[in-house]
DNA sequence: CGAATTTGACCACT
DNA sequence: AGTGGTCAAATTCG
């Protein structure tokens, strides 16, 4: 019951984020149209962005709800059958996968946004991937040994836009998720002591350094984590750029590179637009 | 000292 | 043989 409300709230926020992104791009389009009347290429590109954004919103509204939820599949769709076939062939990772894209606020540290999703992760590997400039980091849930939580995720900085981090999640959290970040965030105004306050300020600074300066681009459209409702005031910091539910697909990183919506094309070939866009984002999010 | 990260080795799969 | 993913010893961190 509560889960349903939570998932609805989450979906609503994601839909709003997606629509918001559509609005952003539309503003870009209008601005470009005013300045350069005859640049059909740019217009077409931005229009495709808008189209993609609304398509994702529609997908969230229609089918995105039940896809990949870690319960027993009562209904057998085509995707389920394919998944079952492949799972019967090889009993490997039946864990579901999805991906996110984290947009790092420009001018901030290039430290990978690991704890931005509210879970505590533990790095267990790092690998250079062919054709990729930046290495890929492998993280697993901190409570793996203590509670047997098998959730993992991979984090890789995008080659095209270093401000974007591609995240691949594999498996859902089975651990009892007490969130140190949430506690630290909710806490800060209760106590006021002399020299402790400074330390608390520092601690708060650490927390917000991790969360505030990063923009998470959630694209799951899923209700896989019940954490974000407590993050309501941070929900606006996260913008949905794209959404991918990979029930079995292997390389989400490369496919993402092809399907990324905010590709560096408009930013590199048209820096003025990029500057305007970033200033807008800063005005809305960075404070 | 325990916990988290680093980093080369190892392993499974083409 | 090469690549992506994981392990684990060494090292750093708190
Ligand atoms: Zn977990």
UniProtKB/TrEMBL annotation:
It comes from Tripterygium wilfordii (Thunder God vine). Keywords: DNA-binding, Nucleus, Transcription, Transcription regulation. GO terms for molecular function: DNA-binding transcription factor activity; transcription cis-regulatory region binding. It comes from the Eukaryota. It is found in: Nucleus. Its main location: nucleus. GO terms for cellular component: nucleus. This is WRKY transcription factor 90. The keyword Plastid does not apply. Coiled coil: none annotated. Residues 110-173 form the WRKY domain. InterPro entries: WRKY_dom, WRKY_dom_sf, WRKY_plant. SMART domains: WRKY.
């Amino acid at each position: 019951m509560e889960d349903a409300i939570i998932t609805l709230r989450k979906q609503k926020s994601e839909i709003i984020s997606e629509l918001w992104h559509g609005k952003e791009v539309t503003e870009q389009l209008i601005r470009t149209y005013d300045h350069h009347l005859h640049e059909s290429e740019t217009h077409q590109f931005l229009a495709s962005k808008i189209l993609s954004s609304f398509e994702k919103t529609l997908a969230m509204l229609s089918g995105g709800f039940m896809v990949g939820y870690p319960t027993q599949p009562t209904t057998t769709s085509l995707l389920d059958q394919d998944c079952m076939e492949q799972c019967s062939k090889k009993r490997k990772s039946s864990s579901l996968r999805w991906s996110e894209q984290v947009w790092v606020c420009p001018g901030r540290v290039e430290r990978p946004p690991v704890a931005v999703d509210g879970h505590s992760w533990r790095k267990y590997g790092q690998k250079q991937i062919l054709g990729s400039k930046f290495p890929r980091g492998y993280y697993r849930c901190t409570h793996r040994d203590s509670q047997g939580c098998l959730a993992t995720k991979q984090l890789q900085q995008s080659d095209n836009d270093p401000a974007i981090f591609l995240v691949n999640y594999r498996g859902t959290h089975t651990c009892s998720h007490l969130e140190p970040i949430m506690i630290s965030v909710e806490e800060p105004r209760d106590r006021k002591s002399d020299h402790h306050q400074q330390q608390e300020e520092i601690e708060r600074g650490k927390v917000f350094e991790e969360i505030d300066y990063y923009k998470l681009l959630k694209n799951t459209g899923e209700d896989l984590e019940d954490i974000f409702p407590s993050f309501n005031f941070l929900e606006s910091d996260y913008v949905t750029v794209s959404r991918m539910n990979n029930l079995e697909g292997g390389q989400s990183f490369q496919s993402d590179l092809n399907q990324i919506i905010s590709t560096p094309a408009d930013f590199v070939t048209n820096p003025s637009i990029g500057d305007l866009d970033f200033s807008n984002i800063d005005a809305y999010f960075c404070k």
